[in-house]
Amino acid sequence: MAEVRLQQVCKRFGSVAAIRDLDLTIHGGELVVLLGPSGAGKTTTLRLIAGLERVESGNIWIQGRDMTESQPSERDVAFVFQQYSLYPHLTVRENLAFPLRSPLAHLDKGAIRKRVDEVAQLVRIQHKLENRATALSGGEMQRVAIGRALVRQPNIYLMDEPLSSLDAKLRAELRVELKHIQRNLGATILYVTHDQVEAMTLADRIGVLREGRLVQIGTPKEIFEYPCNTYVAERLGQPTINLIALTPELREGAPDSATTLGLRTDHVRLNPWTEATAAHRKATVRKIEYLGDQTYLHLDWGGTALTFLADPGSSLAEGDAVALEWEQPLYFDQNHHRIS
Amino acid sequence: MSEIQVRKLRKAFGDFVAVQSSSFTIHDGEFFVMLGPSGCGKTTTLRMIAGLELPTMGEILLDGEDVSFLRASQRDIAFVFQLFALYPHMNVRKNLAFPLKCIGAPAAEIRQRVEETARLLRIDHLLDLSVSGLSGGDRQRVALGRAIIRRPKAFLMDEPLGALDAEFRNLMCQELKALHDRIDATTVYVTHDQLEAMAMADRIAVMNHGIIEQLGAPSEIYNTPASMYVADFIGSPSMNLLTLPGSLEPGQGVLELGSSGMLSLPRCLEGVAEGNLVLGVRPEHLVPQERSPLCGSIRAVEYMGTTQILTVQTEWGPLLSRVRSDLPFQEGEVLSLGFEPHRASLFDASHGRALNTERAHG
Question: Does B284 contact A194 at a Cβ distance shorter than 8 Å?
């Protein structure tokens, strides 16, 4: 598997700058996830690497070779799209074998058969190999689509929200499977999504994109614990980080240039409220919200709304008063950059 | 505003029964969500309430009046499809005014209602701007405004947020709920997304094959799912459902798991036959606990920020546990998981319904 490097890549569509000065290296065997909302430039980045779009300026290196001007076929990448685009008139086996039938692949029938069987096992579709592609469930079709990319061993796999059309349960299962497959194969994958849970659970490193710029790149833990600014802090973590304007009484322990306090569940301790609690530490439980997989605790803190993850064992009820304490929270300056 | 009563409503398309004899009442001012996978009958039910489909049997009462066979236009109901389409060549004011113009409202009234609606949605400063220059959130607010400006008796919404990306959907959920709380309009909302349902609903009807499996507040559906289907549908990851060996006698609260040890369960008020006992525990209620018989090696560790999800392969099947992410766990490590009995549910696999336990009685 190969290293892919983007160097100062820019791309505009008319007057819109889709990608601005993008520097990004995907190491061999690494799974990098680009996270951002629609319009952030995620898909454009994939298309530039694949050669489906031409860069405005900058260079794209694949395995040490400058491929900026190369044809898509020379770049040897495999693309998995959001909508499984299978050949409806072919069987699962024929769909999987299709990329290997290309004269460029130089493979005989026996070798193709062997490879298809291997991959079918990997994506757990071996029992449906002779079915028509249209006779499969959504999850099975997407597994075949991923399998069709995996039969080749290209320089890099480019995946454009491959799980987003599946229901939540199937998405969670395929997420775990995809991570296992990637590890076992040592595959290099660039994966784009707007789903922070996918990004956190799949990625070796996450790159956060905003309006065509890479705002921060790092391991899920780095990005979550040390976001470089409020934009990144707000993209990761459920519930969303609480950002609170610093008032004089909250300044204690804050760096001088801090203007905003960032509080996540990890930073706070909620103790029972007592008479001795300082007035500015008192919060009231406004609502307990059951979301199916997690429970949110909504607090009213002197007119400021705060949301944390409720401790599953907690017996707090609406109307209860709590003392809010925090430890090593995040602080941001007036330009929204994190300072500690 | 209004109350919607649905009585023994049934809809068949040829041999296919889409909705089987549903009865429920949607209270005045309630945010009512019908939740289920595609094909469960939720959209068909909504379309019958709207008057876009006629029922095969049963009746629909809007504020006590039988409207079952009235045309859609004769029911004072607004149907909101995906909250998207705005007229790009019109400004915000004209977009908002459009539904009133269509019914021939007088100009002065239109003006007043547009301004009221804009204030309600906090877009009054945008009235004279073109919609094409607006941010995504403001466009959605305009679309919402256009739905509420007619002041119908009820709003019916069919997956209005379906096409939005995750982050924006969360934001719009909050806005929709806040708007509902301000205007207190009866709202019937259809979705297959359990997060949307849990976040917005006063009550949820979980549907499956044309039948309502459970109707209740989000906390009831979360804490005491009425069936394995509901338990499995709510949550991502959803409730662990583990088929355990052995049977239970009424009153029994402990199960012997072969050589592995004793497992404490909520005290069951009914008996279960051998092979039909299913334990249901939510991942967040399953925690590392020494000497628990629910034990196995960790197959996957998924980091999620504040929490992580562990998949533990036990003798009876995989269990997912959501724990704080500052606890260090490695794939391959052996881990025992336990739970507080009152947090768990028990099901009988022969019919899929929840068993009566002491917990279920409070």
Answer: no
Those residues with Cβ within 8 angstroms of residue B15's Cβ, 6 or more apart along the chain or in another chain:
none
Three-state secondary structure call for residue A35: strand
What average pLDDT is seen over chain A?
91
Could you give the 3-state DSSP secondary structure of residue A334?
A: coil
Q: How far apart are CA A329 and CA A263, in angstroms?
A: 6
What's the pLDDT at B127? 93
Of B222, B300, B322, the CB nearest to A176: B300
- The residue in chain B having the minimum alpha-carbon distance to the alpha carbon of residue A176 is B300
The tokens for B44 are: 């068909």
The interface residues of chain B toward chain A in range 314-333, judged by CB-CB distance below 8 A, are 322, 326
Identify which of A100-104, B36-40, B188-192 has the greatest average pLDDT.
Answer: B188-192
List the beta strands (DSSP E) in A114-199.
156-160, 189-193
Contacts of A37 in chain B (CB under 8 A): 165, 167-168
Whether residue A162 contacts residue A81, with contact meaning beta carbons closer than 8 Å, is answered with yes
Which pTM does this prediction carry?
A: 0.82
For residue B362, what pLDDT is reported?
46
SS (H, E, C) chain B: CCCEEEEEEEEEECCEEEEEEEEEEECCCCEEEEECCCCCCHHHHHHHHHCCCCCCEEEEEECCEECCCCCHHHCCEEEECCCCCCCCCCEHHHHHHHHHHHCCCCHHHHHHHHHHHHHHCCCHHHCCCEHHHCCHHHHHHHHHHHHHCCCCCEEEEECCCCCCCHHHHHHHHHHHHHHHHHHCCEEEEEECCHHHHHHHCCEEEEEECCEEEEEECHHHHHHCCCEHHHHHHCECCECEEEECCCCECCCCCEEEECCCEEEECCCECCCECCCCEEEEECHHHCEECCCCCEEEEEEEEEECCCEEEEEEEECCEEEEEEEECCCCCCCCCEEEEECCHHHCEEEECCCCEECCECHHHC
Please give, rounded to a whole number of angstroms, the shortest distance from the CA of A296 to a CA of chain B.
10
Question: B338 CA to chain A: closest CA distance, Å?
Answer: 13
Looking at residues A6-25, what average pLDDT do you find? 94
- What does DSSP assign to residue A132? B
> What does the alpha-carbon distance between residue B286 and residue A293 come to, in Å, rounded to a whole number?
12
Nearest residue, CB atoms, A168 vs list B167, B236, B285: B236
Question: Which residue among A194, A197, A235 places its CB closest to the CB of B304?
Answer: A197
3-state secondary structure of A87: coil
User: Is pLDDT of B203 > 60?
Assistant: yes
Is residue B83's pLDDT more than 70?
A: no
Q: How far is B72 from chain A (nearest CA, A)?
A: 32
CB atoms within 10 A of CB B259: 6
Which pLDDT tens digit goes with each residue over A71-87? 998 999 999 887 777 89
For B108, counting Cβ atoms within 10 Å of its Cβ (0-12 exposed, 13-18 middle, 19+ buried), the class is exposed
> Is B219 in contact with A288 (Cβ distance < 8 A)?
yes
Local confidence band at A102 (pLDDT 50, 70, 90 cut-offs): confident
- Which residues in chain A touch residue B305, judged by CB atoms under 8 angstroms apart? 200, 220, 224, 236-238, 264
Return mean pLDDT, chain B: 89
CB-CB neighbours of B132 under 10 Å: 12
Query: Percent of chain A beyond pLDDT 90?
Result: 64
A250-286: string of b/e by CB count within 10 Å (b at 16+)? eeeebeeebebbbbbbbbbebeebeeebeeebbbebb
Q: Which residues of A touch B223 (CB under 8 A)?
A: 290
User: What residues of chain B lie within 8 A of the CB of A314, using their CB?
Assistant: none
Per-residue pLDDT at B82 exceeds 70: no
* Contact flag A172-B237 (C-beta cutoff 8 Å): yes
